Amino acid sequence: MSNVLAFDLGASSGRALLGRLTDGKIEVEELHRFPNDPVQVGDRLHWDILRLYHEIKQGLLKAKHQGIELQSMAIDSWAVDFGFIGKNGELVGNPYHYRDRHTEGAMDSLFAQIPPSVIFARTGIQFLPFNTIYQLFALKQANSPWLQEGNRFLMIPDLLRYFLTGEMHNEFTNATTTQLYNPVEGKWDAELLRMLDLPASWFGNVLKPGAKAGSLSHSVCEELGIPSIPVYAVAEHDTGSAVAAVPATESSFAYLSCGTWSLMGTEVDKPVLHDLARKLNFTNEGGVADTYRLLKNIMGLWILQECRREWEREGKSYSFPELVQLASEAKPLQSFIDPDDASFLPPGDMPSRIAEYCGRTGQKAPETTGEIARCILESLALKYRYVFEMTERLSAQRFQGLHMVGGGIQNTLLCQWTANAIGKPVWAGPSEGSAIGNLVVQWIAQGAFANIGEARKAIRDSFPVAVYEPSESEAWSGAYERFLNVTGFAE
Ligand code: ADP
Ligand code: LRH
Question: Which stretches make up the Carbohydrate kinase FGGY C-terminal domain (predicted)?
Answer without folding.
Answer: 254-445
